[in-house]
Amino acid sequence: MDQRRDQRASTSARGAPPDASEVLAELRRQQRRLTAIARAASSVAGSYSLPVTLEAVAQEIVRTAGIAAVQIMAVDDPAADLRILGMAGFGEAPDFVARLSACRKRGAHVRFLDAFLSGEPVVDPHRKPLIMADPAWEPLKEIMDRPDWDAFVSMPMAVRGRTVGVVNAYYRPGEDPGPGSLAFLEAMADQAAVAIDMAELLAQTRTRAQSDERHRLARDLHDSVVQQLFSMRMQAEALTRRLDGLDTGDEGVRRTAGELAALSAGALADLRQLVFELRPLELAEHGLLGAIRAHAASLRARTGLEIEVRATDDLRIGGGLAFQEDLYRITSEALHNVVKHANATSVEVRIAEQEFELVIQVLDDGAMDGNAGDGERLGLLSMRERTERWGGRFEAGPAGSRGWAVRVAVPLDRLDGGRLR
After folding, report:
1. What letter would DSSP give residue 341?
2. Residues 220, 223: Cα–Cα separation, whole Å
3. To which H or E segment does residue 264 belong?
4. Segment 322-364, tens digit of pLDDT
5. How many CB atoms lie within 10 A of CB 142?
6. Partners of 405 in beta bridges
7. Are 172 and 194 contacting, i.e. CB atoms less than 8 angstroms apart?
8. Which residue, 267, 270, 333, 406, is the most exposed by fewest CB within 10 angstroms?
9. CATH fold of 283-421
């Protein structure tokens, strides 16, 4: 009896219990959320396209939770531009990132960066009026005013102990981002984070597969074509020596044998260089410095270009073979551009640690625009992509009154959890 009395008193203190229709409505909301989570998980598991997957996740969020609009954003560097991987409810907004960047430059307070940096959700019950009244948000007001919304929630996306981005939800007026809705957003953010992680792992797998294929091709070339060309050159040289010892009087045969020996020697040298480019063995055996010095010596012998590689004796470059191979490719591409475009007589390669960065510079004394092109040459683009893959900065341009400089700087704390040594 006393227990029932306590229960009635507790019910009275909390207010009247919800009626059956309210309970049923809440159950239906939960069912829709669970269905959306299941569909999102299916999309993550079944699609190999990250944009398609996260666009589907964004659509599921908008359809099921009383949310007017949503953005799924990847954040690699809070100080840099962000990437929108999925968006729904805003209509066509291809310039959203550019407008957001303009707002940030005007001093706008971007709440979702608070969520990213803290790793905790940000809930702002009446965000839209504040944005529409703030002059700093002027570049984005036209887009932000399209959906009918009031409250804002930014939910971090975390996977394997790191935050990779945020899910931003814009709630319709009167919709309360309560515990149930936040739990739903957290589950959807988890699905989006898994999709991003899967895409990164797949890209790494493809990179390794491409590297393995290059190594296989290099091995096959070395074991077959290189050996055949070497044999051809030896036979041609032996034939030339035999003809030199005979008084045949047929200069045409002797000349043809000499040309064959020269052609086979040239083809062998080119093919060996190709094998080295496919699989620079010096990287594994002697490290990045040894590989760059070997390449510089080969170029010097073939072209007559004076190439000096400068590095301190105690510099030890780690970071793994993939990292070293990218830096080797950048340096060899820069040297190739000097040979092909710069009309230079000398070039200097400098490798050093500077202010917690590994810096490689390639400086020549050629024409200031000799290897610049229009800034979109495939080689320059490739060098930039390889640099940015490791969180680095790439620069190429005139150096002083004469010559051209390529500079690559990679932060040491992005590699092996610390310094390269």
Report:
1. I
2. 5
3. helix 251-278
4. 788 888 889 988 988 888 777 888 999 999 988 788 899 999 9
5. 10
6. 363, 397
7. no
8. 270
9. Heat Shock Protein 90 (3.30.565)
Q: pLDDT for 72-100, tens place per residue?
A: 998 888 877 788 888 999 988 888 988 99
CB < 8 Å & 24+ apart, contacts of 219-226: 219/279, 221/271, 221/274, 221/275, 221/278, 222/275, 225/271, 226/268, 226/271, 226/272, 226/275
Phi, psi of 145 (to 5 degrees): -90, -5
> What's the rounded Cα separation, in Å, for the pair 306 and 86?
52
Whether the full predicted model's pTM is greater than 0.85, yes or no, is: no
22-204: CATH topology:
Beta-Lactamase (3.30.450)
Query: pLDDT tens, 368-417?
Result: 654 444 444 567 887 888 888 888 899 988 877 678 899 999 987 655 54
Rg (CA), the chain: 32
Q: For residue 305, how many other CB atoms are within 10 A of its CB?
A: 19
What's the rounded Cα separation, in Å, for the pair 120 and 117?
8
Q: Please give the order of strands across the beta sheet that includes 346-354.
A: 306-311, 346-354, 357-364, 404-411, 393-398
Kindly report, as residue ranges, where domains of CATH 3.30.565.10 are found in the chain. 283-421
Residues of the chain with CATH 3.30.450.40: 22-204
Return d(Cα 130, Cα 291) in angstroms, integer.
Answer: 58
